[in-house]
Design goal:
Layout (H helix, E strand, L loop, with lengths): L20 E5 L10 H15 L2 E5 L7 H4 L4 E5 L8 H12 L3 E5 L10 H7 L2 E2 L7 E7 L13 E6 L4 E2 L6 E7 L13 E8 L2 E6 L11 H15 L17
Parallel strand pairs: 1-2, 1-3, 3-4, 4-11
Antiparallel strand pairs: 5-8, 6-7, 6-9, 9-10, 10-11
Organism: Chitinophaga costaii
Pfam family, one: ThuA
Keywords: Signal
Length: 250
C-alpha cells in the first residue's frame, strides 16, 4: 500500500495538543465481510501516517458515554445487523449531538436498519445489491473535492454495488453509480454511492465502496476514506452540554 498523506485540504484538523483518536467498530451479526481485517490494517496505517490514533474492536461495550468521549470519530467498518442495544444507541446519539464524528464504510448502511436515527446519520439505508461483485463505473459528482482527488471522472472498478432506500435530501454527494454499466441497480439515473453531511450536531461521511480485501490496497479508495475520517474528526472537540437524548442506564 502506498503511503498516503493529505495535509492541505478543506477539512483541517483542529489545532489541539491531544492527538485525535478514532474507534473502528466492525461487529457483524449478519453477513461478515472478509475485507474487514484488511480494512482494520489499512485504517491503522492511515492513522500512523496522518496523525491520528486508531483503536479497533468488535465489542459494542465501547459504546458508552465514558468510552466514546475519548474519540474524535467512530468508524463503522462493514458492520451488519443490530449491533447496539438501546443504551448503546442512546449513548451514540448523545456522542453525535456532542459534536462527534461518524464514518460508515460499505455495509455500515446495512446496520441497525430499524433505527431511524441511525439511518439518518448514515444518510440512507441499504436496499440490496446484485448477486455478486461485478465491474461497473463510478462517476465523480464532486470533481474538485478532497475526497475525490485523483479519481478519474469515470472510475472503472469491481465492487458490490449497493442500492439504497430512505435517502435524506441534505447529503453532499461525492460519487454516483452509473447503473447502465452493470445489472441490478434499482436507484435509477441518480444513484449516490458516497456522501457527507452534518447531522444532529455531528459530522457524517459514508462510502458504499470497499467490499473486497484488495480495495484496502487501492490508493484512490484509501485517500477517499482518509479524507472522510479527517472530516469526521473535525475540530476534535466534544461538548456533552449539547446532547439531549436521555441516557438509558443499565
Amino acid at each position: 500500500m502506498k503511503k498516503i498523506i493529505f495535509c492541505c485540504f478543506l477539512w483541517t484538523l483542529g489545532a489541539h495538543a491531544q492527538t485525535p483518536r478514532v474507534l473502528v467498530f466492525s461487529k457483524t451479526l449478519r453477513y461478515h465481510h472478509v475485507s474487514i481485517a484488511a480494512g482494520n490494517v489499512a485504517i491503522q496505517r492511515l492513522g500512523l501516517e496522518n496523525g491520528f490514533q486508531v483503536d479497533t474492536t468488535t465489542n459494542a461495550a465501547y459504546f458508552t458515554e465514558d468510552s466514546l468521549r475519548h474519540y474524535a470519530a467512530v468508524i463503522f467498518l462493514s458492520t451488519t445487523g443490530n449491533v447496539l442495544d438501546t443504551a448503546q444507541q442512546a449513548d451514540l446519539e448523545r456522542y453525535i449531538q456532542a459534536g462527534g464524528g461518524y464514518v460508515g464504510i460499505h455495509s455500515a448502511s446495512a446496520t441497525e436498519t430499524d433505527w431511524p436515527w441511525y439511518g439518518h446519520l448514515v444518510g440512507a439505508v441499504f436496499n440490496g445489491h446484485p448477486p455478486q461483485p461485478v465491474p461497473g463505473t463510478v462517476v465523480v459528482a464532486a470533481v474538485n473535492h478532497p475526497a475525490t482527488l485523483g479519481m478519474p471522472l469515470r472510475w472503472q472498478r469491481t465492487d458490490e454495488w449497493y442500492n439504497f432506500r430512505n435517502r435524506i435530501d441534505s447529503l453532499q454527494v461525492l460519487l454516483l453509480a452509473d447503473e447502465t454499466t452493470y445489472a441490478g441497480g434499482t436507484n435509477g439515473t441518480y444513484h449516490p454511492l458516497a456522501w457527507y453531511h452534518n447531522y444532529d450536531g455531528g459530522r457524517s461521511f459514508y462510502t458504499a465502496l470497499g467490499h473486497l480485501p484488495e480495495h484496502y490496497q487501492d490508493s484512490l479508495f484509501l485517500h477517499h476514506v482518509l479524507v472522510g475520517i479527517q472530516y469526521a474528526i473535525g475540530q476534535n472537540h466534544l461538548d456533552y452540554g449539547k446532547a439531549y437524548t436521555k441516557r438509558i442506564l443499565q
